[in-house]
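Protocol step 4 of 6: structure prediction from sequence.
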Amino acid sequence: MNEVTGAPGTSRPGGRTARVREAVLRAAGDAFADKGIGGVDLGEVARRAGVGKTTVYRRWGTVPGLVADMLAEMAESSLPRARTGDLDADLAALASLILATLTDARQGPLFKAVIAAAASDAQTAAALHRFYRVRIDEWSPCVDEAVARGDLPAGTDADEVIRALSAPLYYRFLVSGDPLDEAAAARAAAATAAAARAGAYT
């Protein structure tokens, strides 16, 4: 599912055009992770990707347009949710995935750059919101399935459970500077499961 239909650079072509898109998105991600989004222009991305500047300008138009396409591709290619049949295991798997992403040497700086840019650019913010909407939609069924099994109260808001698990990890990542490690991920998963069972998200 393409979550940025109609935004620049979001068609899904094949052949050479697909290879150009892949090269440009990879180069853009590297550049944004290195320098932040405000420090990069489309010309630099074209140079890093080894493609013509006019190709990049014609296809994406602006840096926010490129960010939108990059986030769409990341959402589409992210690992699918766990299907363990156990709420605690599913939430632990999600916490581990978030931890791995935020502490990755490339992905961590890239997400910081995108989140920082989203604070002042509406198009980047909208693309970031679409990215997280896709990820919540991917993982919320594990909560719905727990409700169906009787492991969680009826009426539990699956989206809120996923948000609640993610929030303390992003807080450590972006705000507090406290350790972001396996212990923090395990605590976030366990606390979210306990709160959900207690009816906090109904």
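Step 5 (inspection) to follow. The chain is about 70% helix and 0% strand.
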